[in-house]
């Protein structure tokens, strides 16, 4: 299986890119700023929305991606919501496509272009490749483990922030945090750090890889929100760590909150502040 995956990473990347673009073109963009009220539902509350575009795009990607890599499984946000047992594929031996069909659904519903489609290919807990596609912004970033990250033809490698630079940190929205997590995140309320609630997680990771954001501090661990972006940041030269100081595991069981940052020193600084807040 490993040899098959290596071969796929050599020859199949453009096919995946085409599949992602086609899904967004067919199911997402025709509904952007065109949604009817009956095409929007709540899942866990008024801040947790799902639309017909989310469901149709995930169905489209499930069909196309498994056809590209026979024997692979799909762990998608909407599929797992309907059947939580699908998460078990993250612990299996088959390659897994991790899919968020519309990351930033709230932005999508409100007509804001800050949403994206996220796809990652993983095997036995290791993310091998990822695609972050923001169709309304016409941006597509691709990362492959050990081969770097690109946004179109541009190599993504932002390096460390300048000395004395006020760190720009996107963090979990207060609506989605426990009291304990809120205390940890309050540790970021210090001089030298400008923290704000995040938008689309996928686009925040892309902003780190572009050097526009220095770090994120997130308190949830859904694989479809993080797998693509964490590889993108890592291949751009960044890193991630959980509150326990360990790399984030896409299978779950992480000490939260966790951070991803454009360099190791920034990640360590954010971790220290989170720990101080949690103490």
TrEMBL record:
Keywords: Hydrolase, Magnesium, Metal-binding. Pfam families: Inositol_P (PF00459). The keyword Protein biosynthesis does not apply. It comes from the Bacteria. Its EC number is 3.1.3.25. InterPro entries: Inositol_monoP_metal-BS, Inositol_monophosphatase-like, Inositol_monophosphatase_CS. This is inositol-phosphate phosphatase. It comes from Streptomyces cavernicola.
């Amino acid at each position: 299986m490993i040899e098959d995956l290596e071969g796929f990473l050599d020859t199949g990347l453009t096919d995946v890119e085409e599949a992602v673009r086609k899904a967004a073109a067919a199911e997402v963009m025709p509904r952007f700023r065109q949604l009817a009220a009956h095409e929007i539902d709540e899942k866990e509350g008024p801040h947790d929305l799902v639309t017909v575009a989310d469901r149709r795009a995930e169905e489209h990607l499930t069909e196309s991606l498994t056809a590209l890599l026979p024997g692979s499984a799909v762990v998608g946000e909407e599929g797992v919501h309907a059947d939580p047992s699908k998460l078990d594929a993250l612990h299996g031996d088959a390659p897994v496509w991790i899919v968020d069909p519309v990351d930033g659904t709230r932005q999508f519903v409100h007509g804001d272009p800050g949403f994206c489609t996220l796809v990652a290919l993983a095997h036995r807990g290791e993310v091998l490749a990822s695609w972050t596609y923001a169709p309304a912004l016409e941006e597509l970033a691709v990362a492959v483990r050990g081969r770097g990250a690109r946004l179109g033809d541009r190599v993504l490698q932002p390096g460390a922030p300048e000395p004395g630079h006020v760190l720009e940190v996107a963090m979990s929205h207060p609506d989605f945090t426990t009291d304990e997590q809120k205390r940890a995140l309050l540790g970021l309320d210090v001089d030298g750090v400008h923290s704000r609630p995040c938008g689309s997680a996928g686009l925040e990771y892309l902003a780190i890889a572009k050097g526009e954001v220095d770090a994120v501090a997130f308190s949830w661990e859904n694989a479809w929100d993080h797998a693509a972006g964490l590889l993108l940041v890592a291949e751009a030269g960044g890193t991630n760590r959980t509150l326990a100081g360990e790399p984030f595991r896409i299978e779950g069981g992480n000490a939260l909150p966790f951070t991803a940052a454009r360099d190791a020193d920034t990640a360590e600084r954010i971790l220290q502040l989170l720990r101080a807040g949690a103490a």
